[in-house]
Amino acid sequence: MIALGLGLGALLGLLAVPAVGRLPRGIAERLAQPEWTAQAGRPTVLIGVGSGLGGVLGALAPDGRVLALGLVLLAVLLPAAAIDVAWRVVPDTLIIAGALGGLAVVALTMPGALVPHLLAGVAGGAAALVLAVVARGGFGLGDVKVIAMVGLVVGAALPLAVVAGLLLAGLVSLPVLAVRGRGATLPLVPFLAAGALLACLAPARVVVGL
Description:
Layout: H1 2-22, H2 43-60, H3 64-87, H4 92-109, H5 114-135, H6 141-154, H7 158-180, H8 189-201
Helix pairs in contact: 1-2, 1-3, 2-3, 3-4, 3-6, 3-8, 4-6, 5-6, 6-8, 7-8
């Protein structure tokens, strides 16, 4: 399935190009970042990253169901990550598309797991919202929505996705803070996306209910 993953990933990267260019325009809260961050939305970057991650999904996914869920995550989190890097916002359009796409795959391939996936999304979103309130700005509502959407897609694997994403963000933040100082900000969606894809590929014996 590697070739299939590579091809579909490249296609999703190509489709992400107009999304990255258009979706942030309607969000008043967007915050422009340094000019170099716009490189995350370049077609070559999106297509290359999409193809690479698609290939990884194709190589590691144990079956078509997991591959489909991984591609749903890739389709929405690739443009969401690029937008978060450049604007520090996450368009609701991508969140809704990911939630509907993930639930559709679950409903078609394992209907018995639909309720647990719904509960994971609701519980994950609620917990993330509490964290956002406690963090007072260190954790945005866009991140909350991403976590809720990922919960709907990966179900019981959500804790693994969040923990992996936050650990990765913590590791990267150390050199960033050392170079740019305490006022530096870090987009969280790219790290949550990495954690989500990792959780999606976790063996069923490790993650019950995926």
